[in-house]
Amino acid sequence: MEARTLLRAALRSRIALALCALLGIAAGVAATALTPPRYEARAQLFVSTPWGGEAGQLQQGSAFTLARVQSYASLVTSRQVADPVIGDLGLTATAEELAERVTATAPLDTVLLHITVADTEAPRAAATANALADRLTEVVERLEGPVRPTTGTERFGTPVRLTVVQRAAPPATPVSPHPVANLVVGLLAGLLLGTGLAVLRQRLDTSLTTTAQLAAHTGVPVLGAIPADPEAAQRPTGENATGRSPWAESFRHLRTNLRFARIGERPGIVVVTSALPGEGKTGTATALALSLAASGTSTCLVDADLRRPGVATRFGLVQDAGLTTALIGQAEPADLVQRAPGGLAVLAGGPLPPNPGELLASARMGEILSGLADRYEAVVVDTAPVLPVADTLGLAPHAHHTLLVVQAARTPRDRVTAATEALAAVGVRLLGAVLTQLPDAGRGAPDHGYGYGYGYGDPVPPRPRAGSGAEEADRTAGAGGPR
C-alpha cells in the first residue's frame, strides 16, 4: 500500500486510531500497576588456588581454576546449595522455584563468579544472594576434598578456594516493571493495531471517498464536491446556499460547472437523484436551486419525490397543494407555485398519491416540466432514489440533464453502478455526479485550475455600477446565456 493511501486510511479512521492509541496506553498503565516490583541483588565470588610456588605451578593452578569456575556456576542452583538456604532463611519457595529466580554467571576468561537473585522484596533478594554465596563455598570445599600439595610440604588442602569479595546489598530501585517502556510499548502497539484496522477498513470498504474515484467509477465528470457541514442544520436554508461558508461555496462551484458542462445552453430541466435514500439529494437540489436563483437565474424547484417529499418543509411552505394537484388536473402549475427566500419559485409535492410511479412517467408530467421550462431558465427537480423505486426512471426522460448524488464513504460502488445502469437502460445519460458529505472541506474537490482572491472571511467585493459592461456580462452569465 502506498504511503499516501496509508495516510488517507489513517486520517479516515483517525478516531479509531486515537482510541486504539489510548487503549494501548491504558494497557501499559495496567501492566505497570498489575506487575509486582522485581528487585535484583548480586554477590560476587573469587575463585583461586591456595598454593604458591614457581611460575609453572601458578600457571597450572590458574588453568585449573578457569576450568572449574563454570562448574561452580552450575552448582549454585543445585539442591545441595538451595535446600539449606531455603531452610535458613525460612523461604516458602521450593528448590526448583528458587532456581528460577537465581542466575549464576562466570564471565569468560575470568575467575569471578556472579550470583544474582531476583525477588519482590529488596532485603530478601540480598539475603538470598549472600546465603547462596556462603553455602556454595562450603559445598565446593566439601566436594573438592583435601589433596596433597605439590610443593613437597606435608600440609593438605583443597585445590581451589571460593572467597566472597562483594556481598549483596538491598537494591534501592526495582529493575521491573518499567513504566515508561510499558507506556511506549503500549502506545506503539495501539497505533499498530489502529493502523491495521484502518488498512483493513480501507481494503474492505466498497464506497467512494474522492471525486477521482467517483469520476473513474461512473465515467462522468464530478461537477460538485460538497463538504460535510455539521452546522448546516442550524442555519436557515437560504443562508446555507448563499452564505460565505465552504459549504455554500461548493454549490457555487457546482452551479458554475453545471453551466460549463453545457456551454451556450441554459440549465433547463435538471433532475437530481441518488442511488439510495439519505445521500443528500434533496439538500443538493435545494441548495443548487437557491444558488442559481442568487446568481440571477430565474429558477423553479420542483419536489417530485412523491413518496417522501421534503422541499416544502425546508422552506416552511404549504405541502397540501403542489405537483400531484397539477398532475390530476385540479389546478395549473402556475397557480400552485410558491415563493421561497431569494426569489426562488417552489412547486411542492402536494398530497401523497397511491401511484407516484405512473403519475411521474405520464405525458402530463412531461407537459408540466415543459411548461415550467418555458417560464423559468432553470427547473431543478428533486426525485426519489433510483434503486428502491422506479419513480425516477419514469421521470428522468422528461428532463434535459440528470445529476447523480453520491455520499462519500457511504454509498457502495455496486449501488452506484446499478443506478447508472438503470438510468442508461431508459435512455438517460448522466450529465455529471455530485459527491456529498466529504469529511474535510475541500478534500477530494475537483481541481478547477484557477484561484480567486476572496477568502471566506473577506469582505464581499463591490458590485459594478449600474449600466456597466461588467454588470451586463454578469447578468448574461447568470441567465445561462440567451434564451
Automatic annotation (TrEMBL):
<keyword id="KW-0808">Transferase</keyword>
<keyword id="KW-0067">ATP-binding</keyword>
<dbReference type="GO" id="GO:0005886">
    <property type="term" value="C:plasma membrane"/>
</dbReference>
<feature type="domain" description="Polysaccharide chain length determinant N-terminal">
    <location>
        <begin position="6"/>
        <end position="88"/>
    </location>
</feature>
<dbReference type="GO" id="GO:0004715">
    <property type="term" value="F:non-membrane spanning protein tyrosine kinase activity"/>
</dbReference>
<keyword id="KW-1133">Transmembrane helix</keyword>
<dbReference type="Pfam" id="PF02706">
    <property type="entry name" value="Wzz"/>
</dbReference>
<feature type="region of interest" description="Disordered">
    <location>
        <begin position="447"/>
        <end position="483"/>
    </location>
</feature>
<dbReference type="InterPro" id="IPR050445">
    <property type="entry name" value="Bact_polysacc_biosynth/exp"/>
</dbReference>
<keyword id="KW-1003">Cell membrane</keyword>
<protein>
    <submittedName>
        <fullName>Chromosome partitioning protein</fullName>
        <ecNumber>2.7.10.2</ecNumber>
    </submittedName>
</protein>
<keyword id="KW-0812">Transmembrane</keyword>
<comment type="similarity">
    <text>Belongs to the CpsC/CapA family.</text>
</comment>
<dbReference type="InterPro" id="IPR027417">
    <property type="entry name" value="P-loop_NTPase"/>
</dbReference>
<keyword id="KW-0547">Nucleotide-binding</keyword>
<dbReference type="InterPro" id="IPR005702">
    <property type="entry name" value="Wzc-like_C"/>
</dbReference>
<dbReference type="GO" id="GO:0005524">
    <property type="term" value="F:ATP binding"/>
</dbReference>
<keyword id="KW-0472">Membrane</keyword>
<dbReference type="InterPro" id="IPR003856">
    <property type="entry name" value="LPS_length_determ_N"/>
</dbReference>
